Amino acid sequence: MSGRTSPRIVSLLPSATEIICDLGLGPNLVGISHECDYPAGVQNLVAVTSSVIPKDTPSCEIDRLVREHLSTNSALYQLDLDLLRRLLPDLIVTQALCDVCAVSAEDVEAAVSSLPGRPAVINLEPMCLEDLFTTMLEVGRVAGIERSTVKRVAELKGRITVVEQRSAAIPGERPRVAFLEWIDPPFNAGHWTPELLELAGGLDVLGNAGRPSITLNWDDVTASEPDVLCVACCGFSAKRALEDLPILQRWPGWENLPCVRHNRIYVFDGNAFFNRPGPRLVDSLELLAYALHPQVHTVPGVPPGSLLRPYGNYGHL
Description:
Elements: E1 9-11, H1 14-22, E2 29-32, E3 46-47, E4 49-51, H2 59-71, E5 77-79, H3 81-87, E6 91-95, H4 105-112, E7 120-124, H5 129-143, H6 146-168, E8 176-182, E9 187-188, E10 190-191, H7 193-199, E11 203-204, E12 208-209, H8 218-224, E13 228-231, H9 238-249, H10 258-261, E14 265-267, H11 280-292, E15 309-311, E16 314-316
Parallel strand pairs: 1-2, 1-6, 2-3, 6-7, 8-11, 8-13, 10-12, 13-14, 14-16
Antiparallel strand pairs: 4-5, 8-9, 15-16
């Protein structure tokens, strides 16, 4: 990285942008990805990426297009190299975790090799909560704010400990929870989400802890007999995910699932929570814990009992 006291930073994925801003480095951002939308104000920055998948594409078509591009090794995202050159970044924060989530690591490395000054590159590859904190510390170290980053990580870990201790004190059996990251077709929750479920006081019946999510058969869902069904579609708001919920309702055996009989189906804003490995994973944990055990857990800043709102016959958060 150059000797500038205030490094110019480009973020190529939303979770990186959230980490950068959470650490107080927002003023250093000069470019973002086309999907970066949090915190407020980052949309005013120039986007250096774009997607080949049109907005408002149906879920099943998104899945087909993604599989098609991955099978042919064609890029899902495009990087504006001319714009990147003009931004003169000292640091580029990207990922090598998932080719479906952002510009591929290979494309970034190829672009960086042609940039003047060869900016530093940090690849974020978190698979669990501890990996998230490791990546935050790495960003802080490279940006020269290691001390304040250590303090921030300790604050986030403290909130996790509070949830974990409350969950440990809950008597009786834990509810069986099926967590879906996509509906059409169904995908289970991988990476850090099974860990969040355990900390929140649930028993994960579908998850893929520490590994990518995978496509499920509907029989996998029904066989798990979940007491609670959680849905957080990757990149979708709760409202958008709810539009796909009737797809699940049409599957055989839906009405017999315990979660349906007891009206324990929660649709979360996957664009804001669960899917992005940034600081809001801790918010995600608190939301999930509240949904599973509202008599024990609370959500900071939200009055008790006000979080769950009816949406048809289901709750959304």
